[in-house]
Amino acid sequence: MTPMTTEQVAEFLSVKVERVRRLARENLLIAKDHDENGQPIFDKDDVEKYKELAKRLGGI
Asked: Which residues form the Helix-turn-helix domain (predicted)?
């Protein structure tokens, strides 16, 4: 597993950090863990799969 912070995911997906947090809250992007501040940590493979699926469905 290659961990990604919320900020890294936002940059990778070209969206705002708030959007990534909402995706996590809505279980559309599953966090694998949380950091010491309670922020979600994501697996890079899951983020890449989400991006591919979002593209197929018309965008993020």
From this structure: 4-52
CATH for 1-55 (3.40.50.720, 1.10.260.40, 1.20.1510.10, 1.10.1660.10): 1.10.1660.10
Asked if 42 and 3 touch (Cβ cutoff 8 Å), the reply is yes
pLDDT for the residue 42: 97
Residue with tokens 């994501």: 42
Closest CA to 23 of 56, 36, 12, 1: 12
Residue 46 and residue 29 in contact, taking contact as beta carbons nearer than 8 Å: yes
Please check whether residue 56 is in contact with residue 14, taking contact to mean a CB–CB distance below 8 angstroms.
Answer: no
